[in-house]
Structure formats: structure tokens, C-alpha cells
Amino acid sequence: MHQVKDKVGKDNNVVPFIPEGDFYFTKGVEAFQKRKFDIAIKWLKKAIEAKPDDALYKCQMSIIYTEIGSYHAANQLLTEVLQASDYVDCYYLLANNYAHLGLLNDAKKYADTYLEKEPEGDFSEEAKTLLHLIDIGEEDIDDEDWDLEDEDELLIYMETVFYHMEYNEWDKAIPLLEEMMTLFPEHPMAKHDYTQALFFSGYEEKAVQIELDALKDDPNSLYSHTNLALFNYQQKKEYEKNVQALLNVYPIHEQQKLRIAVTLAKTGYIQEAHDRFRTLRKGSVKSHPSFYRWYSYTLYYAGAPEKAQLIWEEGCRKHLKLTNEGIPWK
């Protein structure tokens, strides 16, 4: 080890440099600006460990979570900050997250609160724009019977079901989905997630019939076609018609794009799935283990095994539970 002399000439061991929260925070922001979100999260976690009461650190971490689509994790951090302080920026950040989740009443509530507290704040223009967009979106919606408590409850159901569905925990998803369909019959995705959970729990014919009935009501239903493609493929029945319906659809929303890409991968349309995965904005689907599971699978069979390995390893770092599944293509 290098030695240094102090003023009186004694030998002293070099004291190692121990960076504090500000150093970690600066490194995290630099990584975030370069869109290296994995690295940014690691630095910000260190910053928060060093200064757990610093509201700015947690807000910055929440922004990174928002960027990668982990809205629930972002909201948890922001709520922690508000419980300990009145850091006003949190209100706008919460409003933005709830808007992304489609929970417009909560989004409106937090945007209004932000503007009440900081009418000329850093996010005042963004908050006003968000409120304007919410007003446009609500023009044709009668939500007299829809309140904030309903939205909070729906969010909890959505987040919990999402987790179980991503890890194929059908037995845990089914009772939650049955409750959702009773409490929120106007939420269409619950029925399609329910049929998928039913099918892979052994209730195949019931699941197929529900989707066939749904397809009669809406012949263009993206979710009915994705489910029936999977169901028929598993049952070794004619599934190409449903896949063809998907090949002609190019949704705007990243989650819908991902659903099509995963379905194509599962049904053996490797090149088509590969093309769809490449169009996804990674920041919007990082919270989905299925993205890493099936994109790596597709890359391997599309002739890019090294990239497949990299994507799978990245997924395992983000979602530790994936490491228990084994490599998808093996």
C-alpha cells in the first residue's frame, strides 16, 4: 500500500476515499442522462442508503422507475417522501405515474394539488398540460360512480395480478381475477387474463369457449386472438388464423406490442416475433419478465445466441426470480 508522510513525518496508511450520498447521486444522474438505467438505479440505491432522509434522491429514483415502466415502485418511493416531508414535486410525479396507469382521477387529484401548492413551480406547465389531456380524455366518459378509492383498489389488483401472471402463478391469479371481474366489470383485461389463467390451470375448454364468445362480440379483439392463438397451439388445433389476425395489427401501446411479440414467439413465429421485439421501447417493457424470457428465446432461435445470452442475463439481474427458471431455450 502507498504510504504518505504527515506533517510530523510519521508514516500513515492512506485513508481510503469513502464517497457519500452526493457522489453516488451525481453518478446516478450521469448514468440516467446516458439512459443506462440499470447503472443509475445501482448508484441511486447507494445514495439513498447513505442519506435515507434525502427527498431529492428518492424522487430521482422514482423518475428512473417511471422511465422503465415500474410505476408502482415509483409511487411507493414518492409516497414515502410525502409521509416524511412535503416535497412538492412528488405531487406532479405521482400525477404523471397515475396518468400512465390510466387512473385519471388520481392523476387529476395530484396535479391539482401540485398547482395549488406551487402555481409557478418547475412542473407547473407540465401539470397544466396533463390536466388538459385528462379533461379531453374524460369528455366522453361518465364517471359519476367512479371515485378515487375505486381507482386505488383497482391499481392494487392490477399490480398483484400482473406479478402472478408474469410468473405463471395461475392458482394465485385466478381468485384475484374473479374478484376483479365482480368489482370492476368495465375493466376488459381481467376477463382475458382470467381465461389464460383458467386454460393453463387445466380448464381448457371453458377458457376457449369464453374467448370464442368474446370474439363473436368483437371479431377484432387483440386479446381474444392472442389467447386463442396460444390455446389452439397448445391443443394442436388450427391456430394460424388467429396468428394471421395478429400479424396485421400494429398497436400503439407498448404492452400490446409486447403481448403480440410474446404470442408469436410462443407459437413458433420466430422471425415475426423477432421483428416485433425489435420495435419495442425497452424502457417501457423492462418491468415485464416475459420480455426477457421470450426475447432471449427468440434471439437464440433467430441465430443470435450471444445476444440472447446477454438479454437473458440482464433480465435475471432485474428480476431475480427468473434465475430459478433456467435458460429459456434449454
Automatic annotation (TrEMBL):
Family annotation (SMART domains): TPR
Family matches, as InterPro entries: TPR-like_helical_dom_sf (IPR011990), TPR_rpt (IPR019734)
Record-given protein name: Tetratricopeptide repeat protein
PROSITE patterns recorded: TPR
Renumbered ranges of TPR repeats: 21-54
Alphabetical keyword list: TPR repeat
Originating species: Virgibacillus tibetensis
